[in-house]
Structures are given as C-alpha cells and as structure tokens.
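hey team, just a heads up i'm posting the complex here instead of the shared drive bc the drive is being weird again. everything in one block, sequence lines first with there labels, then the predicted structure for the whole assembly after. its two chains so it's a bit long, scroll down
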Amino acid sequence: GENVEQHPSTLSVQEGDSAVIKCTYSDSASNYFPWYKQELGKRPQLIIDIRSNVGEKKDQRIAVTLNKTAKHFSLHITETQPEDSAVYFCAASPGQNFVFGPGTRLSVLP
Amino acid sequence: SAVISQKPSRDICQRGTSLTIQCQVDSQVTMMFWYRQQPGQSLTLIATANQGSEATYESGFVIDKFPISRPNLTFSTLTVSNMSPEDSSIYLCSVGPAMSTEAFFGQGTRLTVV
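-- predicted structure starts here --
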C-alpha cells in the first residue's frame, strides 16, 4: 500500500522567512496530493492541493510542487506569519482514500 | 463543500465500556471515512463506511472492536468497544465528494479512557 514520509518533523522559522516541508510517497498510482493544516484542538483544514497532471500550484503565500518521477512533493510558505504556526500534514491518494504523512509542527517566531 | 457534525466532541469513559460516535453530513455522500489521531500523531484510517454494505477495515482494525453503521447516505456511527486506556485518542469522521478531491472532517471526538 501507499506510504508517505514527511520531513522535517518540526520546523521553526522567523516571521517573514520562508518554510518548506517535503513529502515522499511510494505508490505510483497516487494522483492527488493535498496539504492540511491542523491548529491545536481543531480539525484538519485543506490549504492547497495538487493533481498528478500539474507540476506546481500557487495560492497567495502558499505553493506546492510535485515531481512524479521522483515521487515527492513539497509545500512552500513564503512571508510566514505567526498564524501559520500549526501542524501540517501532507497526504497522497491512490484511489478512494488518503494516506497521511506523520506531520510537521511549524512554529513561526515573532 | 460538506458540513459535518460529529458528536460527542469529547468524553471520558471507564475501561471496559463502549462509546458510539455519530457523524452527520449535510449532503449525501457515497463514502465516509473514520480516522484515529493519537496524541501528537498523524491521522490513521480505521475504516471506510459505504451505505448498504459492510465497512472496509484497514490493517490493524477489526469490526468487533470498531463496529460501524451506515444506515443512509448522510449518517454514520463508529463504536469503540470494550475500551482500554490505549483507545484514548481523537476520532474523526471524514467525507470526500468523489475520488481525488478534498476531504472534509468533522470536528473530532476526544476520547479519554480511565
């Protein structure tokens, strides 16, 4: 089955700097790659996603890149703000469900 | 998008008892998913609930421990049976309108077993 790895497990950045989180997946059949943000005590919320026919997608300060050949995808957050502090999960979908990465705890220091 | 109401939001239960978690969606969906999120961990899929058929369980999860009902296209329940402290976790239901699209989550049920 699908296996998703995610690095780093924790990340601290200064406010205004960029943050990058990387994920790898194992199943070449996976064709959908969402990123979820989970604040403490809250449910996961989708922040951006990308499909296998696209190499890059951007939404304001957030971007995701996908390299299908290498089976990895990355989340880029620019101009980080304190409210970006949360746990971020990548996921891969080989079909009807998702396999989540272990998560990255991002701390944005003022 | 889908709005999901999940209850209870939290509960403290005695070991050996059972708890049933309810998940209500504001629209009809084919599949509903139940996840477990242990403290500080990622989301692990327990099972997929299809209306009109048996739920499909992931490796490590069995029907006797986590029976699931799916009586219609907008509702599902997950029961955590014969609970032990190791079952203390957050349980989340989720829906996706179709394959390879966004998943929406309920607010989660924080279960503590004492």
